[in-house]
Amino acid sequence: MMKKFKLGLAWQILIGLILGVIVGAVFYGNDNVTKYLQPLGTIFMNMIKMIVVPIIISTLILGVAGTGDMKKLGKLGLKTIVYFEIITTVAILIGLLAANIFNPGAGVDMAHLSKGDISQYQTTTEEVKHGGFADTIISVVPTNIVAAMASGNMLAIIFFSVLFGLGVAAIGERGKPVLAFFSGVADAMFWVTNTIMKFAPIGVFALIAVTVSTFGVKSLIPLSKLAILVYVAMAFFIFVVLGLVAKMAKISIFKLIKVLKEELILAYSTSSSETVLPRVMKKMENLGAPKDVVSFVIPTGYSFNLDGSTLYQSIAAIFIAQMYGIDLSITQQITLVLTLMVTSKGIAGVPGVSFVVLLSTLGAVGIPVEGLAFILGIDRILDMARTAVNVVGNSLASLVMARWEGRFDQEKYDNYFENQSKA
């Protein structure tokens, strides 16, 4: 009897991506593409965003209550933040090094570049400047958890869930019905996630078609040197930097990418890490990281471990300086590194975060912020790559932290790939 052929989700999403590019290129400049397809993409993105908060809250409460040890959790938190700081600093330095070696902004004719409108980001930057890093720390403690959930304030949600989980653990037997409830919520939400993912190829098709029809492939040509350098630097960061980190943790970066292939295609095509958060958390648990480590490290990484974004920001800052013929001194570049280290953490969750970070950073070293208007046209193409890097970085972080804590399940990891090879 002939085996029934079934196309995997990764292939379905890839086909949606390719068809979207074709439709967008054929109907370049046609407003009807946005009019008819944007709603499909928006509905898919909204469905994903709808499930993120319940999944984080339920899994984090279950994980923390299972640990029930404030000291152990504090140690994990400190190790996680130290790890994130080291990795993101390495990403910034690689970006600066790549931009200084290859000079992507040298000889760019600004007269032939189209300018985008950066006013919306400038407004957000002003709001950020008034608050800054100190305000971010304060906003970790919510005055109203329902409001924090509504606004998607990830750090406030994590803070509340950790405290609540510790509370459930502290009351012992009386906390068991609460744990049973959240266990049911988590299982139900993962079922909802898998159901929503069946619509991913349609959502990806719509989002990519709108992007290509709006900006066109032509927008890439004048800035192709920047785009190629960003993609090459990100590939180097994943396979060399994260590859070495993975090797030290006795994990294969190639195996990890293979496990995440569906999530990476989806994150790349939607430019959103949120779309894959639930599935990435589940897969990292399956690979041998404990639930409490996964549910703490990955959501925290979405605010503090944006490797792809910080790498891009350092390249973009030097690119704009080179475009204007500004030669940055070593001191100015060190200032740039330090400013990026703080601002990239301080405004996590702000829409267009990479642009906002750049706007609030460029002024610190005397680079004209107007230069950002020239790269706005290809920002979506670059955003797709940095989102995929962020997903790999945060997924690996959960496994590294599990290994560092001495709680990585090697048998589970080995069995996962053994079962995959048999399937």
UniProtKB/TrEMBL annotation:
- Tell me which UniProt keywords the record has, alphabetically: Cell membrane, Membrane, Symport, Transmembrane, Transmembrane helix, Transport
Matches recorded under NCBIfam families:
PRK11283.1
Show the stretches that span the lipid bilayer. Answer: 7-28, 48-68, 80-102, 145-171, 228-246, 353-376
Location comes to: Cell membrane
Q: In its UniProt entry, what is this protein called?
A: Glutamate/aspartate:proton symporter GltP
Transport as a keyword of this entry, yes or no, is yes
InterPro entries, per this entry?
Answer: Na-dicarboxylate_symporter, Na-dicarboxylate_symporter_CS, Na:dicarbo_symporter_sf
Q: Taking the first listed entry, what is the main subcellular location of this protein, grouped into a coarse class?
A: membrane
Topology with respect to the bilayer: Multi-pass membrane protein
Give a single Pfam family match.
SDF
